[in-house]
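sorry for the late reply, my laptop died twice this morning and i had to redo everyting from scratch. anyway the thing you sent over, i finally got around to it. pasting the sequence first so we're on the same page, its 288 residues, then the predicted structure underneath. double check i copied it right bc i was rushing
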Amino acid sequence: MNSSAGFVDILTNMVNAFGDKYDRNARLKPALLMLLPALVAIVALYHDALGMLGTIVTLVGGCGLPLLLADFARSRGVAREQKLWESWGGAPSTQLLRHADSTVDPVSKARYHSFLAAKINTKFPTPAAERQNPGKADAVYASATKWLRGATRDEKKFQLLINDNITYGFRRNAYGLRSFGIAVSALTLVWVCMRHGFSPFVARIRDAKEVEALFSAGEWTSLVCALVMLVAWLALFSKASVRAAAFSYADKLILACETLMKPDSKSTSRDRAKTAPVPRTGRTKPTQ
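ok and here's the structure:
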């Protein structure tokens, strides 16, 4: 039991020490969810041998295993992203800036266009120009959203936006790992049932007087986890879930223009201090 707790502590500490908030939640955790059924089976079925395994995991973790897993998850997510955008009609943030899209009201969109045009020093297309050359218009919108992403990295000021970005990154990368997650879950189910061989498994089914007696507590734990994750990979990590997160993030990214258009309080205070009249010092001439 102590070996199991120590193994879990090693994995937990490895996750907590990895990267920043985005890297941990959007990149590393999808990869760990992919491996979760196998990890649960290892802890539940082989806890007596986890002392040595914990040492191996610590060594491998120090050699960059979390970085490798996170990079693999990101690469799979990015590989799927472009095809998803094409199926949706373009990058979500680009779509929201188009005149043809009605998600953002025309009055607000006009203000955002004017603000962003000044920031990237590029004139935004008119509705007619957008219809005439959609590709050129999208290039301007893409440049504007790139500037927006760079201008909204303040975690305190744009906390909701950053949380939405993490959610989108998590779902995108998990969707990229979907086939691997399904495979690990299915193989774990097969392994738990067949690890002693096919004949012993058939004999167990024949001799069991009740369902609970088919498997040990550790086996039931492993099977339930693998089955839950299999359903999750099939039902939750879908194109629809990625799309919902993507457009939620894009909406908040465009809305960040409202915050960025407000004058900075510190800059305003400094400007007022510069323009404030300097008080006169010394004695004043007495009146007659």
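Residues 21-45 form the longest helix (25 residues).
thats about all i looked at so far, will dig more tmrw
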